[in-house]
């Protein structure tokens, strides 16, 4: 509060001096002043006190000073009161408009300096809005008080107050910001200090000659020193320079010196002088602020360029250090970039003209050794709108005579207004993984074969023993005991055979190479369901009832997909309560990600609570104690098959009773026409 009152007192003193100085320039036979510095002082006063706790006191003090000074300089009481209304309206309109247009500026409610050209023009709008409000009241008051109306009085009031607010207000907004945030004092070079001194000397000399010598009409060429300051020196100095030169021009004119003193009409002389001062103020500020904006933009551009260059170097370093090959291809099939790994994985083979060559040029084949057609190259499919995932190709050329298996993926790059787009292709060497997978599958086959041979022997001898026991008296207790033991052996052998077959199937689903093709899902499901119906008829059990809904074609390995469907349908049939006819509904939809979501719902015994996720793990049996045979690998095989195709699988309860299995697969490739660049 004390600081606020102190500022009010200081501004009151400054306002008294400004008001008194303005009243000393009253035109002949009029109560209007030629200049009114109090207009600019008042807006800076109220801008400084905008957030003060005692700001309610400022209008009262301003009104008291206005009345006192006007009465002391010969104005009537009524006219002094009208001037109070005019001055308060002028300040209020200026502050209101400035706050609406530039609330971020210091003095208008914000904390930013007057530093942009756009803000200058907003200040100009607020300035002449405030001066216009004052001009509506002040000259009208003079007219009502003196019964004399001169239209030039209103124009003089408007222009003199507008120039005063613009010039002194700009100085106040700049200095007030620096005072509240700290003065930007930086050590200037000797050359820059010399330029400041030279500018001041040149300005005083030019204005002394232009306004001190009556016969030299040099007023408007004096704008050159303003332009010099605005182009070269600090903006705060520029506004102070404009204020100083404007004061010199007005003082010379008031004393009858300079090119404007020759104007015979005193109001016209005041208008011309004020127009000149306003012009140098706007020109100086506009150039200086525009220069500051350009400098700031250049700094930002330089910083952004350096940051972009740093990011580019970082990205280049990362891409070049990758063991995976990365390449980017334009829509016209020309290379944008290739990292060293891409060249190495392709055996060092490059195209001579920078265009992606035909597969034969690089020695690209299908994994089975058949030539790879040009339209099946990953970048061609990606440019055609079809992303590629996990495509395996064989490369064999002079650089890779022994051959190499590459796993290739490609994605289309979106085009925008400055970029034509293209496709990014990523590939890596999976030769070792493929060899390991093949060896593992071969090992699993050998082990399974070696295990099945003893089981076959056991089954053969068990059948021989069964025939022998059948010829013996059935009432003999030893025969009955031997029959029971033989039945246990037969069941154990069957379980072992099922376990080995499931392990083989799991190994196949996990490690065998997949060859995705477009599969008519409905045809494959019909084959699986017909086989289950025939199996039930052969076993003399009720035939399952199947309801098929919409079934979209998918892209999958036909062998693995058949195994997946057969496992799920087999589980649905097996886990049905005794005496219940299995009813199974199968349908599909295309979800929001473009994948085909297939659901299989049954009326079986369902899945116990808490087992819906665990049933997909190895050897987990949810109904272990319910008398249903199994190894616990069937659903693990299903999960592996789905995941190898890039999908997911889940189990939920069927609202109508039973279970519902849902899994996703990629959709079949849409029919499209692809053009391949000739090379």
Structure write-up:
The structure is a single chain. The protein has 679 residues and is of the alpha+beta class. It contains 18 helices and 13 strands. The chain has helices at residues 2-23, 37-48, 57-72, 77-101, 117-146, 151-181, 190-212, 223-232, 235-254, 266-321, 340-345, 359-362, 378-383, 431-470, 477-511, 521-539, 558-574, 634-644, and strands spanning 325-329, 335-338, 364-365, 388-397, 400-413, 422-429, 517-519, 545-548, 554-556, 583-590, 596-602, 649-653, 659-665. Strands 2-1-6-5-4-3 form a six-stranded antiparallel β-sheet. A five-stranded mixed β-sheet has the order 8-10-11-13-12. Strands 7-9 form a two-stranded antiparallel ribbon. The longest helix is centred in the middle third of the chain and has 56 residues, at 266-321. It is elongated, with a radius of gyration of 47 Å.
